[in-house]
């Protein structure tokens, strides 16, 4: 009988230790890991297609309405977000366009606000953004929208 009690006691201790280790593992907060990484493609996150289309349409509209510079090609188009102080996500489209007038590549950023804001030239916005979507097709789609 002592033999069975010993096994039961050992099993109880083992189960309790396993439970404690599991609880500690679930509640540990590792502050050494950044909460988000900038300038990298985040995994398992998506941007709604309506946001992508809004940013693409807004960028094309702004380029058509405010020339020069006149874009004749696009490259490195990325879509992501900036996190505001209240942790809200402000979606952003970043990339470069080839200027017809200067024949040089110029950076731009289109940010979804209540409407949108577009910036021509290098800004800190794209460097601070968390990139979610990078696809060569975005550049081709933006060129088509400009036609």
Relative helix content: 40-55%
Oligomer class: single chain
Helix/strand order, N-terminal first: HHEEEEHEH
Counting DSSP H or I runs of 4 or more residues, the number of helices is: 4
Radius of gyration: 25 Å
> Spatial order of the strands in the main sheet?
4-3-2-1-5
Mean pLDDT: 78
* Low-pLDDT segments, ≥5 res: 27-44
Number of strands: 5
Strand content: 25-35%
| Envelope shape | elongated
* Structural classification: alpha+beta
Q: Could you describe the largest sheet, including whether it forms a barrel? A: 5 strands, antiparallel
CA(first)-CA(last) distance = 88 Å
Give an account of the 3D structure.
By secondary structure, the protein is α+β, with helices and mostly antiparallel strands. The chain has a domain at 49-146. The chain contains 4 helices and 5 strands; from the N terminus they run ααββββαβα. The chain has helices at 2-27, 49-65, 124-128, 136-146, and strands spanning 71-83, 89-99, 105-112, 116-120, 130-134. It has a 5-stranded antiparallel β-sheet with strand order 4-3-2-1-5. Helix 2 (49-65) crosses helix 4. The longest helix has 26 residues, at 2-27. It is elongated, with a radius of gyration of 25 Å. The protein starts with a helix and ends with a helix.
Q: Can you give keywords for this protein?
A:
4 helices, 147 residues, five-stranded antiparallel β-sheet, alpha+beta, 40% helix
């Amino acid at each position: 009988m002592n033999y069975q009690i010993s096994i039961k006691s050992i099993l109880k201790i083992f189960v309790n230790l396993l439970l404690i280790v599991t609880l500690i593992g679930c509640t540990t907060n590792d502050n050494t890991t950044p909460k988000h990484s900038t300038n990298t493609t985040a995994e398992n996150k998506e941007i709604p297609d309506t946001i992508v289309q809004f940013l693409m349409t807004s960028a094309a509209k702004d380029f058509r309405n405010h020339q020069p510079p006149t874009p004749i090609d696009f490259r490195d188009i990325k879509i992501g977000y900036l996190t505001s102080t209240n942790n809200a996500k402000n979606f952003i489209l970043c990339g470069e366009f080839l200027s017809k007038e200067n024949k040089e590549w110029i950076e731009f950023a289109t940010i979804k606000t209540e409407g949108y804001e577009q910036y021509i030239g290098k800004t800190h916005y794209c460097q601070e953004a968390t990139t979610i979507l990078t696809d060569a097709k975005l550049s081709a789609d933006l060129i088509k929208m400009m036609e």
